[in-house]
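Dig into this one:

. . .
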Amino acid sequence: MTSRGRPRNFDRQLALQAMMDVFWMRGYEGAQLTDLTAAAGINPPSFYAAFGSKEAAFCEAVDHYVATVGNATRMALEQPVTLRESLRKMLISSIDVALSQHSGGCMLILGVVNCLPASEGVREYLRQARQNAFDILKARIERARTEGELSRQADVEQLATFFWAIVQSISFQARDGASRQTLESLIEPALRIID
């Protein structure tokens, strides 16, 4: 089957990366179509032809973020090391991500802040992406309990919730301009909870 219309004259992946950066910095509500098209180097008709809508572009940018930027955090939890070392690497990776943009923070946590009714679809999309990340963290802690690294009485849900709260704190503090040293100072006290 042949496609209709003129062929694209831009790299869709590069455009997606550029738009991801805009969404990451400004959030869904703060990113205007003019910001997105300028960053991607495309005009509005090309944007709509390639991505469909701002909401669809945002959701695709979230998936791209998870597969690229967020991948290091997931990989830290999948390495065959102790739970303590996995969690340390996860938190260091979260700090790296949070400090990698001049605006600071994590796109999954800060991508939709105002929760306007018109943003409900993207808010839910982000909530599910965060839930997936939480589930990976929880599975790693459960594995440590199953393998005897943690007590059988360890509350996996509570531990996962605690470490997820630290990740969220890192994101918010980075957005407020916290230094790497300040963020890294959270790691050792947090890890003591599993000792």
